[in-house]
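Researcher: I'm preparing a figure for a lab meeting and need a structural model of a single chain. I don't have an experimental structure, so a prediction will have to do for now. The sequence is pasted below. Please return the structure as tokens so I can convert it later.
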Amino acid sequence: MAPAAVALPTAPVSVNGTYNGIMQLIQGTPMSCGTEDMLTLRVTDNAFSYTLNQPQVPDQPTRIFNVAIASDGSFQAASGAAYIRGTASSSHMAGNVFGDACGFHFEADSSGNW
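Model: Understood. Here is the structure written out token by token.
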């Protein structure tokens, strides 16, 4: 009888680098939210900061998210009622950002680790 295969734990994948992509509107009106925006996220030490500009919300024109990426590639962070969540790999990142008035889905690809 052959010995049973043992699954070895995998090491966390580094997702450090610059991710460039597009955010597309999934909640809100195109008139006040726009329909799509370019997106650049710079990940260092498996973390990034993202500022959501929302000029259509006078009392909260920006929401800042300080995001840590877990060893499985998942991430989520909140700023008041607004939130960001998604997944990252060494070459691709995808997720959603919901602000106080608009929601977006984003897809971004890495231009390489640094």
